[in-house]
What does this fold into?
Amino acid sequence: MTTMATSLRQGLLPAFPVLWMACAPPSPPAEPPPPGADAHEGAAYEITEVRPGIWHAVGTGAMNVGANAAIVDLGASLLLVDSHITPAAAWVLLEELAPLTPKPIRYVVNTHFHFDHIHGNQVFGDEVEILGHQTTYDIVSSGGSVSGTAWDGFVATLPNQIAAIEAELQAAPEGEREEVAARLARMRAYQEATAAIEPIAPTITLDGKLAIYRGGHEIQLLWKGRGHTPGDVVVYLPERRVLITGDLVVFGLPFMGDAFPEWGDTVRRFAELDFELVLPGHGPPFEDRQKLLNLADYLDDFWEQARGLHAAGTSAEDAARTMDLTAHAPNFPGLIEGPGAPQVAVERAYRFFERSE
It folds into this structure.
């Protein structure tokens, strides 16, 4: 474990209720907001206190925030799990969190290296420590959060996405133009926000477990093996029985463009912990432990089929069309409607087999 000195961020913030959805952003701080932070109307987040001193922040659609975030009360300060998709999204989260607690954020956890979970890091100064796995540090510090499968698939295509919405707006009938125009404005603001990204890697890393003791509680940062990425860190609050999983476990089916074949086993290790609430990186909170086991079974089946198809010389395109995961459809309603698998997942599996990572 690599450790750097910690110091307390000085916070600016008034207090408010339990389940909250902002009607308008609070007054901004003295410094100007990052590009794209003031282009939306209404609340960007619905922030729910799911347990005393634990909040879950989910985007409303007013701006592109990417992933969920979680905030944990440490007594005199706060820990933020995942800093969102852009500096603008992180800045707005802090603004909308302000009426809920006057406490400053002291720690930010990056659950993994994907852009939608870490590119708000730069709004926090040197006095806030950013925690993550050592491989997350290695990938982000070498430019891996602004390149690769996830970035190329979702962000590098922004100009084409915007051009498609512009064309849609031109062709839209009068009654639909307002909705399309609003969607176009959100995408343009998101593009402006991405242009301001300066990737910041974790300042404290772990390879296994790191524990923080604050406010009479233990906060565990755990890595139990490769999965969604090589360095998925889960935040576990043992006394409060809460698991904050990033994208290692999401509510539905996950993005698999950087996945590893042992992902299912990693999820099963976390399923053995004593918890009653999961706060996923995407989707609503849930209490059903079986969801973790269902995901693990799906992942194992995918990798087994992908390995067999690859060994048989089937192309990735054909494998993505013919792979049959329908046995898992009851566990993922509306997400598996027939044979097939995401091609980005199959291509990732084939790359893995060929490189023997």
